[in-house]
What we know:
Low-confidence stretches: 5-34, 343-353
Oligomer: single chain
Number of strands: 17
Strand content: 15-25%
Mean pLDDT: 87
Order of helices and strands: HHHEHEEEHEHHEHEHEHHEEEHEHEEEEE
Shape: globular
Number of helices: 13
Radius of gyration: 21 Å
Amino acid sequence: MKRLRALLCGAATAALATAGLAAFAAQQASGASADATALSNRWYAAAPYLMPHDNNPPDAGAIMDATGLKAFQLAFILAPNGGGCSPTWDGTSPVSSDTAVTSVINAIRAKGGDVSVSIGGYGGTKLGQTCSDAASTAAAYQQVITKYQLKAIDFDLEEPEYENTAAIAHEIGAAKILQQNNPGLYVSVTTAGTADGTGWFGKQMLNEAKSQGFTPNNFSIMPFDGGFNGAAAQTSALTNFNSILQSTFGWDAATAYAHEGFSGMNGRSDTGEYFRQADFQTVLDYATSHHMDRFTFWSLNRDRQCTPPDNNGQTSGTCSSVAQSDWDFAKYSVKFAGVTPPTTTPPTTPPPSGSCTAAAWSSSAVYTAGNTVSYGGHTWKAKWWTQNETPGTTGEWGVWQDLGAC
């Protein structure tokens, strides 16, 4: 994500929230476990970005107390600045020896929340560029998942990595491997937004996902820093992106929206666009009315008022450059998480499968594209990754293709 990373991170403080450090020390003293309490996918889909090392990181616990927010998108995992295929925070802090981010995560979980971790972002060297293939890229990211006991992960694929076809193939391949090896893992893929939805490189990334048979929980675009200004331009881009998802994957509009996400920028963007609270409300209304899967923004570090409020017409990594109260924009994430997505309750006992030869469908099993199951006397083939979506039940976006009676 462009979001001032290259311009401002060097000047930002590396201090972490005092509450997080205290919670970590207390936990280590008591021997308590850092096991994650998994939230609903709706919360992981609503998690705003937070840089725990840079841009004057706010106290996550204070935000939770003030807003009811439960989930945070921690950014960013990169390759080491000196090269190599091991995960670091911001290219400088090895995940293997980290205690500082661990303390922040523990403090969030101690208050009933959880985190997703974001890979990539704007600038820096990504692991997809330095690891030799998808398997080694996935192994590096698995270290992050294992260390922090993650239930969600975000692939932020943009400049300059998404111009490198081999790197994107590694990232998409890694995402597919992680999805398969970590059942229930919530996977989001975030990329640049344009007025047409996404640009040439974004479309190439979608085509790579299609060619590998990979479908994440959502593909999110970032409609800012590209000639946008206000909600109308953003919702238009989301509509156009929905058409791109339909044409790429052969989905209908509802299925595409169910796999579509929005990642905005609060306040003044890098290029001088403005997105105020009213704009966030408009996009939120669009996202919920179209049953979109994700609504997030960059960033909580900026979800505070500058002094003066307009920051003299400048963009900041630590405040929004618009008039606001602290955490105004986080409240839209809370609203999104509180909206109940459309669901259909499957029958408690599946109908008998008769003489079907495929294994019976199981609500707890994870299926990927091409897997077949038997259910209700028919054979069904999965079109993409799925879990606990009953074959033939309406309202579930058509993940199962009916191959006919056994």
